[in-house]
C-alpha cells in the first residue's frame, strides 16, 4: 500500500507480550500447558521481543510451562513475573534461567491506596522491598524489570524515589503500569516525561508502558507513554487481560506501522501473522473476538454500504487504511446486504459467473433488495438461487 504505508525508521520500540500472564489472569482465559507452548511458539516466530510466559510461583503448572517455554524459545527473551518476595523471585529465577535470554519481572504497589490497604506497609518499607527484590533478582539474571504497580495513582515524588532506587539496585527496565486503566493519554505522556527528567539515573534503564482498558484508552495511553519516552510496550493478543483487558498488541503494532508519520518508531513484529495469532488465542481461551474489533475483527475489512462498496471497487484506499493482506487476512470482503448498491451487486454477479442484460440485471437487483430487506446478510447461495429463478422465469 503506498499512500498510507509508512515505515519511518525511528527509535526501536520493544514489544513485550503478556498474553500468557496478564492475559491468562482474566476469568475464564486459562490455558493448558500445550496451549501455552503453542501460543509462545507463535509469538516467538512472529518476532515479539519479550514473552512474559507466566507467574511461576502461582502453581506447579505455571512453573513448568514458563520453564518449558524458556527452554524452547528461539529468539525472544522469556520473562516470568514475581512479587517482591525472595520466595517468588527464586522460583521465577529457577523457571526462566534455562532461557537463552531470561528476564525476571518483579513488582510491588507504590500508590497510597495499595500501600495502605493491600500491602499494609509504610512507603519506606515498600522502598526497601524495591531495593531488596531487584537485588535478589539480579543474583539470578542480568535482565531485571521492575514495575510500580498502580503507578499512575502514585505520588510522583515517591514514584521517582522508587524508580531511582530500582535502577541503582540493578533494574534494566522500569515499567510504570496503569494498573486500573485510569490515566489519559496526555497525563501518561507527561508522567513518563517527568519521571525521566527527574530521576538522575533514568538513562540507565528502558522505560515501559503497561495499560489496562477500563476506560477504553489502553492503546492510546500506551502510544502516548512512548511519546513521553517509553521504549517498551506491554500488551496482549486480542487485548485479553484483567477486567476490560490490556492494550491489544495488534492495534499497537498496526498503529505504529500505519501512522509512522506521527509515530516514528520501529517494531519487529511480523504483521502478516497477526490474524493467526488472534485466532489461536481466541480458540485456546474460548474468548470470542468482537466483530468490530480493530485489525482482527470479522468486520475489520468488510464493507456493506453501497457508497463504501462503490468506493472500494474504484480504489481500496477510499475506505481502508491498511491492506487486509498486511495483517494476514486473505482479502477485503464486500458483504451483500440491504445497504449494498448496484455496483457491488454487478461485481458479485460477475464473480459468481453470471452475465445479465440490462433489464434482467435491473429486475434481479430489485429482487435482491427485497430479499435483503428480509435477511440480514445475503449469501452467495441466495444470490445464485435468485438469479437461477430469474433465468428460469425468462425461459417460461
Ligand atoms: O497491571 C499491572 O500493574 C500488572 C503488573 C503486575 C505489571 O500487571
Ligand atoms: Zn496488568
UniProtKB/TrEMBL annotation:
<feature type="binding site">
    <location>
        <position position="22"/>
    </location>
    <ligand>
        <name>Mn(2+)</name>
    </ligand>
</feature>
<dbReference type="GO" id="GO:0009098">
    <property type="term" value="P:L-leucine biosynthetic process"/>
</dbReference>
<keyword id="KW-0012">Acyltransferase</keyword>
<keyword id="KW-0100">Branched-chain amino acid biosynthesis</keyword>
<feature type="binding site">
    <location>
        <position position="212"/>
    </location>
    <ligand>
        <name>Mn(2+)</name>
    </ligand>
</feature>
<feature type="domain" description="Pyruvate carboxyltransferase">
    <location>
        <begin position="13"/>
        <end position="275"/>
    </location>
</feature>
<comment type="pathway">
    <text>Amino-acid biosynthesis; L-leucine biosynthesis; L-leucine from 3-methyl-2-oxobutanoate: step 1/4.</text>
</comment>
<protein>
    <recommendedName>
        <fullName>2-isopropylmalate synthase</fullName>
        <ecNumber>2.3.3.13</ecNumber>
    </recommendedName>
</protein>
<comment type="subunit">
    <text>Homodimer.</text>
</comment>
<dbReference type="GO" id="GO:0005829">
    <property type="term" value="C:cytosol"/>
</dbReference>
<feature type="binding site">
    <location>
        <position position="246"/>
    </location>
    <ligand>
        <name>Mn(2+)</name>
    </ligand>
</feature>
<dbReference type="GO" id="GO:0003985">
    <property type="term" value="F:acetyl-CoA C-acetyltransferase activity"/>
</dbReference>
<dbReference type="GO" id="GO:0003852">
    <property type="term" value="F:2-isopropylmalate synthase activity"/>
</dbReference>
<keyword id="KW-0432">Leucine biosynthesis</keyword>
<dbReference type="GO" id="GO:0030145">
    <property type="term" value="F:manganese ion binding"/>
</dbReference>
<keyword id="KW-0028">Amino-acid biosynthesis</keyword>
<keyword id="KW-0963">Cytoplasm</keyword>
<keyword id="KW-0808">Transferase</keyword>
<comment type="similarity">
    <text>Belongs to the alpha-IPM synthase/homocitrate synthase family. LeuA type 1 subfamily.</text>
</comment>
<keyword id="KW-0464">Manganese</keyword>
<feature type="binding site">
    <location>
        <position position="210"/>
    </location>
    <ligand>
        <name>Mn(2+)</name>
    </ligand>
</feature>
<comment type="function">
    <text>Catalyzes the condensation of the acetyl group of acetyl-CoA with 3-methyl-2-oxobutanoate (2-ketoisovalerate) to form 3-carboxy-3-hydroxy-4-methylpentanoate (2-isopropylmalate).</text>
</comment>
<keyword id="KW-0479">Metal-binding</keyword>
Amino acid at each position: 500500500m503506498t499512500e498510507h504505508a509508512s515505515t519511518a525508521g525511528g527509535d526501536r520500540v520493544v514489544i513485550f507480550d503478556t498474553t500468557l500472564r496478564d492475559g491468562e489472569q482474566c476469568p475464564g482465559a486459562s490455558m493448558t500447558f500445550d496451549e501455552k507452548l503453542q501460543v509462545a511458539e507463535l509469538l516467538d516466530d512472529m518476532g515479539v521481543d519479550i514473552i512474559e510466559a507466566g507467574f511461576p510461583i502461582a502453581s506447579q503448572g505455571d512453573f513448568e510451562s514458563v520453564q518449558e517455554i524458556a527452554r524452547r524459545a528461539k529468539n525472544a527473551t522469556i520473562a516470568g513475573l514475581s512479587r517482591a518476595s525472595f520466595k517468588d523471585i527464586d522460583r521465577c529465577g529457577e523457571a526462566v534461567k534455562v532461557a537463552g535470554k531470561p528476564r525476571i519481572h518483579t513488582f510491588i504497589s507504590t500508590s497510597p491506596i495499595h500501600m495502605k490497604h493491600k500491602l499494609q506497609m509504610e512507603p519506606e518499607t515498600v522502598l526497601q522491598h524495591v531495593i531488596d527484590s531487584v537485588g535478589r533478582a539480579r543474583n539470578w539474571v542480568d535482565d531485571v524489570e521492575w514495575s510500580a504497580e498502580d503507578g499512575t495513582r502514585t505520588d510522583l515524588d515517591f514514584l521517582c524515589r522508587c524508580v531511582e532506587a530500582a535502577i541503582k539496585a540493578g533494574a534494566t527496565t522500569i515499567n510504570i503500569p496503569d494498573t486500573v486503566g485510569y490515566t489519559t493519554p496526555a497525563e501518561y505522556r507527561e508522567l513518563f516525561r517527568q519521571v525521566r527528567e527527574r530521576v538522575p539515573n533514568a538513562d540507565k534503564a528502558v522505560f515501559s508502558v503497561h495499560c489496562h482498558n477500563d476506560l477504553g484508552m489502553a492503546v492510546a495511553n500506551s502510544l502516548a507513554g512512548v511519546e513521553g519516552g517509553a521504549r517498551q510496550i506491554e500488551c496482549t493478543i486480542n487485548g485479553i487481560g484483567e477486567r476490560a483487558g490490556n492494550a491489544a498488541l495488534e492495534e499497537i503494532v498496526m498503529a505504529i506501522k500505519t501512522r509512522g508519520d506521527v509515530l516514528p518508531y520501529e517494531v519487529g513484529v511480523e504483521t502478516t501473522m497477526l490474524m493467526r495469532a488472534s485466532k489461536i488465542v481466541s480458540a485456546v481461551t474460548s474468548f470470542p473476538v468482537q466483530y468490530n474489533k480493530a485489525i482482527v475483527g470479522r468486520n475489520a475489512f468488510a464493507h456493506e454500504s453501497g457508497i463504501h462498496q462503490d468506493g472500494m471497487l474504484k480504489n481500496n484506499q477510499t475506505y481502508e487504511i491498511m491492506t487486509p493482506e498486511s495483517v494476514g487476512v486473505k482479502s477485503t470482503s464486500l458483504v451483500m446486504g440491504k445497504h449494498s448498491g448496484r455496483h457491488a451487486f454487478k461485481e458479485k454477479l460477475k464473480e459468481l459467473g453470471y452475465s445479465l442484460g440490462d433489464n434482467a440485471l435491473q429486475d434481479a437487483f430489485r429482487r435482491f433488495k427485497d430479499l435483503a430487506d428480509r435477511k440480514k446478510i445475503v449469501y452467495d447461495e441466495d444470490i445464485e438461487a435468485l438469479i437461477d429463478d430469474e433465468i428460469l422465469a425468462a425461459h417460461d
